[in-house]
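ok new one. same drill as before - structure tokens go in, u give me an amino acid for every spot. 166 of them this time. try not to just spam alanines like last time pls lmao
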């Protein structure tokens, strides 16, 4: 079963929004059945509810499914349940690869997989970062790159199942 895990720092805005946007896109594409799409944070506390700002931005974009979101810390167990891991910042990607080098071929930046460019998605929790702009960037990247994400996740699913059979 294809699976995608979106990662950000706190699992309170960027990664849950990206996961919800991607779920919407794969449903529109007609391939959403049997997919596992979730999110986690590299530096968070488990169980924090979705902040009002996230829910407002999701509503503005017409994205549903975030009212029951609870933050969770990325763990080895979570990481290894997914074929594809998509991070918001290069530092997050590199930290995960540093800790789990055997998964380096399964971890991408959202900008990298969606646009074939390398850049970070700003954290709206930081000063002078506009949440509307961050939301629009994530939404646009997912719309533009959903087919690429689907293709890579399916390829990784095949490759990971083949290597685990050996």
């Amino acid at each position: 079963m294809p699976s995608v895990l979106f990662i950000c720092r706190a699992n309170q805005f960027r990664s849950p929004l990206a996961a919800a946007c991607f779920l919407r896109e794969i449903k529109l594409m007609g391939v959403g059945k049997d997919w596992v799409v979730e999110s986690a944070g590299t530096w968070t506390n488990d169980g924090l509810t979705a902040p009002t700002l996230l829910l407002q931005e999701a509503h503005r974009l017409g994205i549903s499914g975030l009212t029951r979101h609870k933050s969770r810390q990325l763990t080895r167990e979570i990481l290894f349940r997914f074929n594809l891991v998509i991070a918001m910042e290069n530092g997050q990607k590199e930290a995960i690869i540093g800790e789990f080098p055997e998964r380096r071929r399964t971890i991408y930046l959202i900008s990298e997989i969606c646009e074939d460019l390398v850049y970070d998605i700003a954290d709206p929790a930081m000063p002078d970062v506009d949440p509307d702009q961050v939301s629009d960037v994530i939404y646009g990247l997912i719309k533009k790159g959903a087919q690429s994400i689907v293709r890579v996740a399916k390829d990784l699913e095949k490759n990971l199942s083949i290597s685990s059979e050996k």
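The chain has one domain: 3-165. and btw The chain has a mean pLDDT of 94.
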